[in-house]
Amino acid sequence: xxxxxxxxxxxxxxxxxxxxxxxxxxxxxxxxxxxxxxxxxxxxxxxxxxxxxxxxxxxxxxxxxxxxxxxxxxxxxxxxxxxxxxxxxxxxxxxxxxxxxxxxxxxxxxxxxxxxxxxxxxxxxxxxxxxxxxxxxxxxxxxxxxxxxxxxxxxxxxxxxxxxxxxxxxxxxxxxxxxxxxxxxxxxxxxxxxxxxxxxxxxx
Length: 204
Description:
Helices cover 52% and strands 12% of the residues. It is built from nine helices and five strands.
């Protein structure tokens, strides 16, 4: 089975692209979704995070205060590394388990930090969703209350746009794409991936 790694910077539109592949009945395994499940109330990963960062990261109901934790890790590289050391191994183990349960021609594996976690060899092909940094900032501001400075800090913590594009097999330019154009682009990639799968790929 062909494994297509979907990645891109914050605010580039990865979720929109994932949803379009889902509409084509292609399974999407999302690292962020898995991470959210792993830190749900009562999960072992949440308890481990509390042991490292303290009870201050919890909301009143005992759930993870994501915004508070995000503020901590994006302002301190060492704290970020501590969180990643807890979550990343669990996320990728869960992803592998989900992949092994599939029986499809190909699947989409959405990993925002694909390059940062050196998991590019985890997939057979890399699809990057791209847009300019200023567009990223505007989109994130529309959906959150983050400041420009905090958004730029998040962007700076990821590999550069240039690096992603250089290492991409396929690119979706989502600078100002309409829904119909995005859907058309995804459909073309869908047909490409079906063709590649039919010819055979590593891991197929």
